[in-house]
Amino acid sequence: MADTSNLLALFREVVEEVDKKKLPDVTEKSVIADLGIDSLSTMQIIGELENRLDIMIPDDQLVKLETVGDLLAVVERCAAKKG
Amino acid sequence: MAMLGHEGERDPVDTRLALKLYEEYKTFFKNAERTRRWNVFDDIPWDKIRKDVPEELALVVETFCAVEAYLPDYVSGGLALVRPYMGSLWFQTNWGYEESKHALSLQEFLLQSGARTDEQMVDLQNKLWAGQRWTPLFQTGRQMTIYGAIQEQATFVFYVRQRERAKELGHETLATIFDFIARDEVAHAHFYEGVVKVLLEQDREGTLRDIATVTRDFKMPAYDLVPDYDERVLVMRELAGMDRDMFFQKVYFPVLKAIGIGRNDVVQAMARQRREAQPSAE
User: Fold this and answer.
1) How many domains would you assign to chain B?
2) Of A82, B73, B98, B226, which sits with the fewest C-beta atoms within 10 Å of its C-beta?
3) Which domain holds residue B248?
4) What values do phi and psi take at B13, rounded to 5?
5) Are the beta carbons of A44 and B271 separated by less than 8 Å?
6) Domain parsing of chain A, residue ranges
7) Does residue A31 sit in helix, strand or coil?
8) Looking at the domain that runs over A4-82, which CATH code has it been given?
9) pLDDT value at position B121?
C-alpha cells in the first residue's frame, strides 16, 4: 500500500475528509501551509493516516514537515518499518 | 452532578471528585510553600539592574505585563467556573496571588530600568481597561482546566526561553525574574494536569471531547484585548525562537503525555466531533 503515489492519493482523500478541501493538483513538492492546511489540521491528517495504515509515528518525527513529500516520507518510513 | 461547573453551580457536588481535587490542591500548595515561594523585594537582584534594556526586550516584558493586567478578570472568571469545588477554588485564589507577583516584578523591572516611565505604564493600563473585560475562552470548568494545562505549559516554555535570552544579553535581574516566574508557571501546569487526569478517570470520553475542543480553539489569553497584540507576539516568538513545531514538541505533546493520553486519542475525539457535526444522511 505505502508507495508514494498511493500515499499521495490517500493524503488527498484524508485532507478532504478532515479539512473539507479538494486538492486535485497537490504534489509531493506542494508546501503544506500553502495548501491552507494549518498545523492543527496537519496533526489530524497524520492521525487519520496512522489509523488507516495502522501505524504509529513518534511525536518527535512530526517536525519540519514543510512539504507534502516531507510528511509522506515520514509515513512511508513508519509503514516500511511495520512491514 | 456538578462537574467543575459543567452543569451549573447549584447541582450537587460529586464527593469523590471534590476529595480528589482537594488532594491535588493540597499537594500543589505544600510544594509551593516548601520549595517555591519567593519575594519580589528581597529575592530579585534589583541592585544589579541595568539601564540599557533593548527595546525588543522591553516590549516582551511590557506585553507580559499587559496580559497580566486582566488578572482580576481571569480570577473572577475562573472562580465562577469551578465554584462548587474547594480544591479548584483555592487553587484559583493562590494562582491569582502568584500571578500578581509576576505582574508586579515585571512592572518594577520596566520602571526601575528606565525602559518605561510611570506615565507610560498608566497610559498602557488606561488603554487596556478602556471598557474591555476578559471573558473565558471556554464555557466549562473542565474545558478551562484543560486550557490552563496547555496555556501554563506554553507560558513556562516561553519564560524559559526569554530567561536564556536575558542571560545572553547580560540582564541578570530580568533573568532572575523570568526564572522565578517560569518555576511558578510549570507548577501551575502540573496542577492542571493532575486535575485533568482525575477528570479523565471520572469521564474519559467527555474529557477527551473537551481536550479536542480546547485543542481546536486554543488561543493565548487576552489575544483580542492587548493593543498591537499580533505585532508584539511576532517579536516575542522571534526572540524566543518559538514556532508551531516547538509549540507541539515542547508544549502540547508533553501535556498529553503528562495526562496519560496520546496524540491519537485527541485525533479520534476530533474525528468523532466531525462525524457528529455532519448532517444525518436521512
Assistant:
1) 1
2) A82
3) 15-277
4) -75, 140
5) yes
6) 4-82
7) strand
8) 1.10.1200.10
9) 94
Is B152 among the domain residues?
yes
The packing angle between helices B118-128 and B55-68, to 10°, is 50
pLDDT in tens, B42-55: 999 999 999 999 99
Q: What is the pLDDT of residues B64-96, one digit of tens each?
A: 998 888 899 999 999 998 888 999 999 999 999
Residue B186 domain-assigned?
yes
Contact check, Cβ <8 Å, B267/A43 = yes
Q: Determine whether the interchain pair B244/A64 forms a contact, defined as Cβ–Cβ distance below 8 Å.
A: no
Residue B281 has pLDDT above 80, yes or no: no
What are the counts of helices (DSSP H) followed by strands (DSSP E) for chain A? 3, 0
Q: If you average pLDDT over residues A63-82, what whole number do you get?
A: 88
Encode A2-18: b = buried (16+ Cβ within 10 Å), e = exposed. Answer: beeeebbebbbebbeeb
Measured between CA atoms, the residue of chain B closest to residue A20 is: B274
Confidence check: pLDDT of B172 > 60: yes
Q: Do B245 and A40 touch (CB under 8 A)?
A: no
Under 8 Å between Cβ of B236 and B158: yes
Note whether A60 contacts B: Cβ–Cβ < 8 A: yes
Interface TM-score (ipTM) > 0.95:
no
Q: What is the CATH number of the domain that holds B122?
A: 1.10.620.20
What is the model's pLDDT at position A33? 86
By the 8 A CB rule, do A6 and A28 touch?
no
Q: Which residue has the higher pLDDT, B230 or B67?
A: B67
**What pTM does this model have?**
0.88
Compute the distance between CA of residue B220 and CA of residue B151 in angstroms, rounded to an integer.
7
Has residue B5 been placed in a domain? no
Residue B80 lies in a domain: yes
3-class DSSP state of B102: helix
Classify B2 as helix, strand or coil.
strand
